[in-house]
Structure prediction request, 589 residues.
Amino acid sequence: MLIKDVMNSPVLTVDVLVTLEAAYHIMLQRNIRHIPVTYEGRLAGMITDRDIRLVTSPFAAGGAKPIDTPVGEVMARPVVTGDPLDPVEEAARVMRQRKIGALPILDGDVLVGIVTGIDLLDALLRLTGVQRPSGRLEVCLDDRPGELARLSGELARHNINIHSMLTYPCGEATVTTVVRIGTLDVRKLAHDLRQQGYDVRWPPQIPSKSL
Amino acid sequence: MSVPVVYSPQYKLYNFGPQHPFSPVRLEMLLDLLEQLGHPPQFVEPTQATREDVRSVHLESFVRRVEAAGRGEYSPDFDHYGIGTADTPIFLGMDEAARWLVGGTLTAARMISSGQAREVLQLGGGLHHAQKDLASGFCVYNDLSVAIRHLADQGLRVAYLDIDVHHGDGVQWIHYDEPNVLTFSIHESGRYLYPGTGHTHEIGKAEGTGRKLNIPLEPFTEDESYLEVLQMGLEPALHWFRPDVMVIQCGADPHYLDPLAEILLTTRAYAKIFPLLRQYVAEFSGGKAVYTLGGGYSLDASSRIWAMLYLTLQGLPWPDHLPEPWLRHWGTQLGHLLTHTLLDPEGCYPEIPRKPEIERRNRQVAQRMLESVRPYWN
Prediction:
């Protein structure tokens, strides 16, 4: 999943000469919290609703600024940016490290999109969510080449489609694999897999339940 | 007054093969049990649903593919429609067979809308996973939605209740934006069980918002907790919605013996659930309801649970002990001993260590569900 798949495009921008008041109203109207600021059409900085509230308040260092101050005087710069072809986790890592809520996306020096924290939540939902009716199978695999292929081969042999798959390390030499699969009858499959020595974590084995 | 029972031997045509869990043997065992208990049902013969009936909820492109598959034809896009998968494999005549089940539930609904009957038991159907363009989870056509569509078209407010262990996703999505259809599904959480949906945040959209209700249960939920949250969620919903008629899918797979899920109901719970539902029907929907079967993959449990449903609806007494010839015959057929009594014995499964936490979490889920829909109830 790439940044271009999750970013908002086209982007709403304001010029450096726009007043804080005008920029704040745009944010309220559009229900957004970040606006890239441009100078002669190029990305020059970022302004957030929080920046505007702070600099116009009594808490501002050096006293409150008037609301007709141009955003260019207040915006954050230089701007941290991303590339549309970067993977989405790259955007997440940068935003997490720099503690920023939005990342303008530049193709060369053209502003083509913006990614926000909410977009990353949407991406997480797409990666882990349930797009088609499916059952859940969780298997703990040895962390070595071919294990995942062996498991997916089993699913193919049962004519069971894989809708999504998530793997992450668990412990020293094993990998938890959560597979959403197109069947209601996961326990029968789990039984077959256990007989072949797989460490199936879900569905659990329940002695009272006959097959 | 006895409750009419809709059934046709044609239902048994809906058969995915001997290895498949959705087996017509369930019906044979049930009918044999009712007969041997001395209460054989008088059947109302259903009318097979027409193509047009099916089209009232399913897309033309989907129906055309089910028909083609049932004729033995092949198309590379069958998979996309959920046809020919591990769960809904293709069999000859699948369109006709599925239309018999739809016809049964629709016949039951028509008996109610025409004033012929108040409550009707359909001994089949309950194919709640089928979506408008997707066969899924053993379900080809959605008989429940076709019946609900008929009732709603007559101007009736319909409350759909789904006690199958799996989320009633097909019915929910088909009527997701409809204001006159309330859906209520109580099931093992989609976090663990097929189809993966049925969370408390699924509450409907547009005009239907606040009218699609879900109680996803923790795995290993037991009798008391199930009954507690069922009442907690359902009673206020029915009290507010005031349906004209209910459609109730009585899947028997939340039973502790069921091989496909992790909920641990005993038949002692059903001894309370069915009378409770009847009481709700009398109190909140003018005494009108269609009851259907549904999932249920432990033959031992399903035949007893549905016998209890039948006996409850007919106001017949429950036997203490099941007939010996029935136990012997079906025990031999299935190759294992069957439970001897309608009510499961005490302590029939090992104690669950997380019980208090499971109860607490279920209660919290029911509360969360009510909190998210109540703002739309006015």
